[in-house]
UniProtKB/TrEMBL annotation, chain A:
Residues 232-247 have a biased composition (Polar residues). It comes from Linum tenue. Its EC number is 5.4.99.25. Residues 126-232 form the Pus10 N-terminal eukaryotes domain. The keyword Electron transport does not apply. This is tRNA pseudouridine(55) synthase.
From TrEMBL, chain B:
Residues 1-17 have a biased composition (Basic and acidic residues). Gene3D superfamilies: 2.40.50.100. Belongs to the ABITRAM family. One of its GO terms (cellular component) is nucleus. InterPro entries: Abitram (IPR039169), GCV_H/Fam206 (IPR033753), Single_hybrid_motif (IPR011053). It holds the Pfam family GCV_H. This is Protein Abitram.
Amino acid sequence: MSGETEAVSLSGTPTTAELAAVSNEEETRILSDAIRSLPPQAVKDLLNSEVCIACILRLFGFREHFHFRSSISSSMLHSVLGESEHLEHYGILAGSKSGEELEVQQIVCRMCLGILQYLYRNDKGILVQKLSADGLAASIDEMIKQDGHEIDGFSLELSVPPVLLEHDNAVWSYMKKRYGQEVGIAEETSKCVSVKDALKLAITYPIENMLDVKSSSIPSSFRIRLTYSQTKPSSSMAKSPGETNGSCKRRKTGMMNDVRMSFSVLVSCSFCFCFFAADVNGVPVRSSNFSGDQKSSEPCNFPLEKVNEPYYLALVCCRTPIYIGGRYLKFSRNVSQTRWIIDDERKGESSVEEIIGSSILPACQGDSYKFHAAGREDIDVRMLGSGRPFMVEVQNARRVPSEAIIKETETKINSLEEKLVAVKNLKLEVNNGWGLMHEGESEKQKQYCSLVWISRTLEDEDVQTITASKDMKVLQRTPIRVLHRRSPLEREKIIHWMKVERVAGSSQYFLLHLCTQAGTYIKEFVHGDFGRTNPSIGSILGCRAEILQLDVTDVKMDGF
Amino acid sequence: MADHTVQESNDPEKQGKPEFLLPVEDEGELRKLLVPDPENLPATPSSAVETNFVSYFAPDFTKPGHDQYVYRHANGLCVVGLAPGHLAFKDEGGITAVDFNVGKSDRSGMKVTGKRKKNAQHFESNTAICKVNTKADSYIVRCCVKGSLLEVNDRLIKQPGLLNSSADREGYVAIMMPRPADWLKVKASLMSGEEYAKLREVRVLN
């Protein structure tokens, strides 16, 4: 699959009011006038070479949506070009407005390969002929409604094979050479409207109408993607692989789909448009100069090659991921942050990821979710205080939840019977909270409270010593408990401050409150990890120290 | 405290407020969660090693009196060192020096990098890691477990006394990473802490 894709609406798209104003009769009249304005010999030449009316019009720079929405009827074409011509074979390329029987063997336009004739092969390989742009819009509408999407906007993305540009160039060159003088285009650069632009103009209005929404200039999260291609689209295009239980396992290498990504960069400079398009194997191939003066490396000649089969069309309607963020608290010492299963056995009672995700997913009616958090804590460590920032990424949400629904979801999670996890400040993240979160993970300070035991009595001196240290540097070798999966390194971390709170009724236990740099291993700071963390509480006090429990009391981050 | 094991929750009891504020709206609620009930606190809690490692012992390893321990973590890594019954501790003055320059290379010079533990040397269980010297004698300490040598305790070079004071913690000798199959083979030849304690009539952490 190769082609150029474009998700931005064209400027100059007529407003709904303007579009509505053009009635059927007027549309026919405008089309006829347009054809009449062109040199008749040129038009016949093109029709003879199996070029459809829409392509003829766009070649000469006509760029209103009604030029491409549906075609002129053969009878009208008849009257425009004159009775004496044999128009039988022209008529087929003209298409039909309503109800007329179409020949089963359609002649496919050699320039647009059926795209502007609304002729294509669907994902099952069956030939489909729509009477007009409305027909195609209706298919899209049906698909969206069947899937249950609630939308209030959309972004149209069209992808067509790059060879169509070459067709445009070839035909334009020919036109210039032969008819340039007549139409006064001998010196001009091409006014040709691309197939993509024409199609976009043609179907945007009917889609807007049927869905009762506007296509906006700001890309909406809801994407309607039409991909025309030579070869049959693989089934992996529409779905992303490997989802289980509604939650995606975190992938180390990031999100990689089986779909081959087509590559296109639109660079505009003051003199020309250059398209860099990739061929089927994703390798950048060549650039075509739009002015048509430069020869492309594989020149197309006029007349173009005969086309027997129109393109395949893959229709995908889905929403790009939406993000619901907030802060979570974890009250249980038996709940991991993410799903944790070893040898088919789950560790812990549940996971924060599943508790939160399983409530958010139905609220958005999405396909699946991914859980992201600003750092993590062990299964036996509680997350208290202000909570830890997190984001749930929802794939293909059928609706963007309103504030009310989100509030409802927050209440639902906090009212669960087991009270293992709670959430705060749940909201839809519009700006990319991503950067903030990762910043939170690696840069922000964290505050903890740990229950510590030492092998001798805690003296007042000890309390002084601990409390007095500010911004103490510790060197931590990778803790043995994670050494199997992390690099063996020595990391310098900072303990910003510490406070001791004695436990009434005990001389060897105390609560240690501490505030540390992100990435500090607290447990190892207390017990020393075979002396591999230095200094440690044990080494500072000159005795053995053990940690019995740990709680995170603050993750210092704004914005969540 | 356990690495990822279940912990009983403590009953909250309101204590006197500390001099600083905890950073949350409802400080009272948070305090209730944090402060433990002294009744529930054991006089001597189990150590981090006891909770997270399973202790194994190899008495008379390759030579009589060369007792070593292997502490195995749930993730498969093994900490090896000198067990309490080792002959070296019986020499007067205890251990005075540690030398990692044994056999073909200086074990303290190796650099293991990356998650995949590149450059880690693969050793047999009887490969020498270091030599410990007392006034009278010197003893070879061996891997005990077949696998990759991830780390040696180079602190022992400057502070050999760690072996005398805490051979079971700060005085560890090395960290090994055996393959699962290799571990199963060697496990069969090791004994538990209880058995070792009986054998040598010493106390061990179990």
